[in-house]
Design goal:
With 212 residues, the protein is of the alpha/beta class. It is built from seven helices and ten strands. Helix content is 31%, strand content 21%. The longest helix has 16 residues, at 193-208. The radius of gyration is 17 Å and the shape is globular.
Length: 212
């Protein structure tokens, strides 16, 4: 008698995950999205990790990043920056929610992604806070914020943080973040050459534990 096929949790289909790849990588000295980690570029690893949880994953960045297998959506016009990247995707993709993630955070746990996505009811934005600072590139934004984003961009604003002033915002504190991500891997990112060495060590550890 054949055993039934075991299936994992369903992918989340009512939001679009955006891998933000529009930064200048000035601290790294080269395009960090294309740095290799365990034989795979950071942007590929970040996008594939998100694709384990979300049905739709796109990249906010130049069309040349389409080689990753994920749709790349460039900024519509200057000012370039996270807010313009988010708005450009909002203009292009018909989705009720958008979850931004950095291209250089390759270890974001599935529990974090699912936990954050589960906190959307009754609000316009969901954002982690660590030591009194928002983490706006690990956050969720409702389509209802597009009008405010359009206004801020027209004023020359580059930062997403301004949206939280206008949104019904749910702030996620350290207790939930620790529950989902006890090693704080979600917020590990690669800004400097030394971070890439640390990332290799983290990857080796996850591989030994069968978690990669």
């Amino acid at each position: 008698m054949a055993m039934p096929e075991m299936k994992g949790p369903r992918k989340i289909s009512d939001l679009t995950c955006i891998i933000m790849a529009g930064g200048k990588s000035s601290r790294m000295g080269s395009d960090k999205a294309l740095l290799k980690l365990g034989g795979m570029t950071l942007i590929e690893r970040s996008a594939r990790q998100a694709a384990k949880v979300f049905e739709r994953v796109v990249i906010s960045g130049p069309p040349s990043l389409g080689w990753t297998g994920f749709r790349a959506i460039p900024d519509d016009r200057p000012p370039e920056g996270p807010l313009m990247g988010l708005l450009s995707v909002m203009r292009t993709i018909d989705s009720p929610w958008f979850f931004t993630l950095p291209c250089d955070s390759p270890f974001v746990p599935e529990a974090f992604l699912r936990g954050m996505a589960g906190l959307r009811e009754g609000v316009d934005a969901v954002v982690p806070m660590i030591e009194d600072y928002y983490e706006p590139l690990h956050a969720l934004y409702s389509r209802s914020l597009r009008e405010e984003a359009e206004r801020f961009v027209a004023e020359g604003e580059r930062q997403i943080l301004r949206l939280f002033e206008r949104a019904r915002t749910r702030v996620v504190g350290p207790e939930l973040l620790f529950e989902w991500d006890p090693r704080s891997l979600a917020f590990f990112n690669v800004n400097y050459p030394g971070d890439l060495i640390e990332a290799e060590e983290i990857l080796q550890g996850l591989t030994r534990e069968g978690l990669d």
